[in-house]
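Re: Re: C-alpha cell formats

Sure, here are both.
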Amino acid sequence: MKYALLIYGAESQWAALSEAEQMAMFEKHGAYSEALAAAGVMVGGEPLDAAATAKRVTDAGVQDGPYADTKEQLGGFYVIEADSMKTALDWAAKCPRLPGDQIEVRPVPAYGDA
C-alpha cells in the first residue's frame, strides 16, 4: 500500500536558519531519499514553496494563501510503498525534520485497482 508522509512545520523556523543550516537539511533529505530508493519503497516526493505562494480555489473563487489560522504549514511530502502502517511510521520516524516539525502519515487508497 502507498502512504503519504506529509511534512508540517513552522516556516518562521526554516527562515531563521542560516544558509548553511538550510543546505545541511537539504543534504539530509537527499540522503533520506536515497535510503528510501535503496530500500525500494520510494514512490515520489517534493518540497513545497512557501505557503504565501499558495492559492485556494473555493466556491467564492480563487483566494491567496493557506488557511490563515494554521501555525504549521505543509512544507513537503514523500509517497512511499510499505506493507503496513507500522512500516510507514518507521520510515516517517527517520525523515529529517526541524525540532517541532511533524510528519503526518496517511494511507493512499488505490481506488479502481484490482
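Second one below.
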Amino acid sequence: MPTEDTINLLKECDAGCKMGIDAIKQVIDKVENKKLYDIIVKYLNDHQKLQNKITDKLNEFDCSEEQPSAMAKAMSHMKINFKLVKGEHDKEIADLMTDGCNMGIKSINKYMNQYPAALESIKSLCYDLAELEENFAKDLRHYL
C-alpha cells in the first residue's frame, strides 16, 4: 500500500497537470500566430499524455482523482479573461502561459519537498511535470 506522502503528492501532481490543461484549453482558440498555436497544441498533448500516466497511477493505487481548487480555477479564468480583453492576444497568451508554468513549477517543487517519503515513481511524474512546464515556458519566450 502506498504511503500517505505518495498519495498526497500524486494528487497534487494530478491537480497541477489538470490546471495546466484547463488553462491551455481556455486560450488555444484565441491564438493567432500559427507557430505559437503549434507550440500550444504540442504542450496540450504533452500535458494530456502525462495526465493519462497520472490517472493510471491513481487507478493502480485505487485513489480518486484530484481536481484543482475551485478558487484557483476561478482566479485563473478571471485573469485569462481580463488579460485577453486587450488587443495583442498572442503576447498576452504567452505571458499568461509563462506565468502558469512558473506557478506550476513552484507548486510541484513545494509539494515534492512537503512529501519527501513519496515513492520514486511518483516523484518521477512530478519531475516530468516540472520539466514539461520549464520547456513550455522556454518555448514561449519568443512570443512575450
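The chain has a mean pLDDT of 91. Residues 4-143 form a domain with the Ferritin fold (CATH 1.20.1260.10).
- S.
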